[in-house]
Amino acid sequence: MEDTTVTTANLSEHLTRVARLLPEKKAVICPAAPGSPRFVHWTFRQLEEETDRLAHSFQRIGITKGVKTILMVRPSLELFAVTFALFRVGAIPVMIDPGMGRQKLVENLSAIGAEAFIGIPLAHILRVLSPGKFTTVKVKITVGRRLFWGGYTLTALRRDPWQPFPPVPAAPDARAAIFFTTGSTGPPKGVVYEHGMFDAQVRYLSTHFGYGQDEVDLATFPLFSLFDAVLGMTSVIPDMDPTRPAAADPRKIVHALETYNCRSMYGSPALLENLARYGAETGKKLPGVKRIITAGAPVRPDLMAAVHRLLPADARIHTPYGATEVLPVSDIDSREILTETRRISESGGGTCVGRPLTGMEVRIIAITEEPLAKIGEVTKLPPGKIGEIIVKGPVTTKEYFQNPEATRLAKIRDDDGGIWHRMGDLGYLDDRGRLWFCGRKAHRVETAAGALFTIPCEALFNIHPRVRRSALVGVGEPGSKRPVIIIELKSGDSGQDKERLTSELLAIARDHAVTREIRTVLYHPGFPVDIRHNAKIFREKLTVWAAAQLKQ
After folding, report:
1. Given this model, what pLDDT does residue 4 score?
2. How far is CA 392 from CA 266, 353, 422, in A?
3. Residue 223 burial by Cβ neighbours in a 10 Å radius (0-12, 13-18, 19+)
4. CB–CB of 119/143 below 8 Å?
5. Least enclosed by CB within 10 Å: which of 17, 388, 494, 534?
6. Rounded to an integer, what is the distance from CA 59 to the centroid of its chain?
7. pTM higher than 0.85, yes or no?
8. Which are the contacts of 531, defined by CB distance < 8 A and separation ≥ 6?
């Protein structure tokens, strides 16, 4: 088949080419409404025509090149058309996790100064109930039933006869979108994406991960599903709440995989844990799935092994490493993890996240909280030494929107004019060029005897048969913190005989150099986790909780 990869900067041009090549192939399949058992679809021709209709309407009502547009629409056919139409007219979609809470959401969105607002009725109610926060918004579009707030409805804007709409030319370094970080280790920040960065991400999905137009993909993360369309893949949106992947019904996930013959799937570790448990309980297998991509938090090798028991022998699970600010950085698949790096990880060596992708550079530098303006100011560390991870490449973003202080702390200018991003993560490179993740810089525990790093320490406790997951935190003054390991027991564990369990866990701590300073164990009923993937542990909240427990 003809290669659908193009080199133009405007992401919507990929869709136009695919629509010409595969007009009758299904582009998007999704529930007719949240919770509905009925699924609907658009072909690539239909998606292209809907995109063009909306692009003409958007331009007519004032959503044009450079207009910042808040987008709060549930996963649906309309989400695809609206997003590609915004790219087509050169507008700048602004996307944020609705689960971060009303106050944070409103404060961050209002700071953007958006000129347009496209959302479901609930989003508009939130806007109306926040007086003085969205004064810059001039164009309002409701996806669904419009109530008392005026503006346009998406249904009305889609009624015009179809006419092609040529995508607005976009230079590779032109602003394309603003995505907010989850704020798991600090205030959420608006990350500025350029058109060339999207183009690079499309190439990585095609060349490295092998995504192609002959596949059907189950996409449980809405933004990831948009890339399916530009690669000519059918994107299946399952019946689930994308803001709560840990609560996804595994029966519905399996149903979608089987009904639509999905060969690939994206899912957070929390969703995969549900799927693995369901498979173990029912004996269900997924013989048609050849590739799973999972991200958002380190994936425990035992979880990876459990998911593999559902898959055919030649299937692979990829765990790419990256962040909202730069994705992907590196990748490793399950074959290498389960046959080689698992042993090192479960012995306290960190989580291997693979080798940098072609064009991506990774360095490990000495840990510092100070800004680093130029690459000449960094102290580069040798292989095997844990330090701060910095990365550079075609998907590295250059700035946070209207946040020069955050930009100054996170970006380093190279001698060639390029930008290095400080990941905020700690890790090391081994002598084979593989990157090992050891936790967030903000989560390291500085004791009087030295620093302890979360991922290497927690891995040793996670292998205990009663432990679902653990979290290392530090209580006390900086430089002399008391290390505490907090345990969440596996589902169904009654918590009996904790004295014996504590004794076993402390024995593990004494047996390994990286955990020898840990002499305190606490038990938590259920860890707080991030809103995007339900997998990153909010250690900041657990630190406050642990301090209160130790005072009692």
Report:
1. 43
2. 25, 16, 9
3. middle
4. yes
5. 494
6. 31
7. yes
8. 97, 99, 100, 182, 243
Q: Give the number of other CB atoms < 10 A from CB of residue 172.
A: 17
Task: State residue 374 phi and psi, 5-degree precision.
Answer: -130, 155
CA-based angle 171:174:177, to the nearest 5?
130
Range name among 171-180, 213-222, 425-434, 525-534 with the lowest pLDDT average: 525-534
User: What's CA 216's distance to the chain center, in Å?
Assistant: 21
What is the CB-side half-sphere exposure of residue 241 using CA atoms within 13 A? 10
What value does the mean pLDDT of the chain take? 93
Cα distance between residue 420 and residue 427, in whole Å: 16
CB 71 within 8 A of CB 112: no
Number of Cα atoms under 13 Å in the Cβ half of residue 302: 12
CA atoms within 13 A on the CB side of 542: 29
Structure tokens at 271: 């969703």
- Determine how many CB atoms are found less than 10 A away from the CB of residue 520: 17
Length of the chain: 552
* Model pLDDT for residues 103-156, shown as the tens digit of each residue: 888 998 999 999 999 999 999 999 999 989 999 999 999 999 999 999 999 999
DSSP characters over 414-461: -TTS-EEEEEEEEEEE-TTS-EEEEEEGGG-EEETTEEE-HHHHHHHH
Q: Kindly give the pairing relationship between strand 68-72 and strand 92-95.
A: parallel
| Torsion sign over Cα 318, 321, 325, 328 | negative
Q: In angstroms, rounded to a whole number, what is the distance separating the alpha carbons of residues 201 and 329?
A: 10
Q: Please give the single-letter amino acid code of residue 219.
A: A
- Classify residue 487 by burial, with Cβ atoms within 10 Å: 0-12, 13-18, 19+: buried
- Nearest CA-CA partner of 440 in 388, 378, 482: 388
Stretch 481-489: mean pLDDT, rounded?
97
Both tokens of 266, joined, read 């994206």
Q: Are 15 and 25 in contact (CB under 8 A)?
A: no
DSSP E strands, 259-392: 264-266, 291-293, 316-318, 321-323, 326-331, 351-356, 361-365, 387-392
DSSP 411: E
CA dist 455 and 459 (Å) reads 6
State the pLDDT at residue 131: 87
Does the pLDDT value for residue 185 go beyond 70?
A: no
Distance of alpha carbon 61 from the chain centroid: 33
The whole-number average pLDDT for the span 508-525 is 96
Instruction: Tell me the backbone φ, ψ of residue 351, rounded to 5 degrees.
Output: -105, 120
Summarised one tens digit per residue, pLDDT across range 268-286 is: 998 999 999 999 999 999 9
- pLDDT for residue 35 is more than 50: yes
Classify residue 194 as left (phi > 0), alpha (psi -120 to 50) or beta.
beta
State the CB neighbour count (10 A cutoff) for residue 191.
22
Start-to-end CA span in the chain (Å): 68
CB-CB contact of 73 with 82 (8 Å):
yes
Determine the number of helices (DSSP H) and then strands (DSSP E) in the chain.
Answer: 17, 27
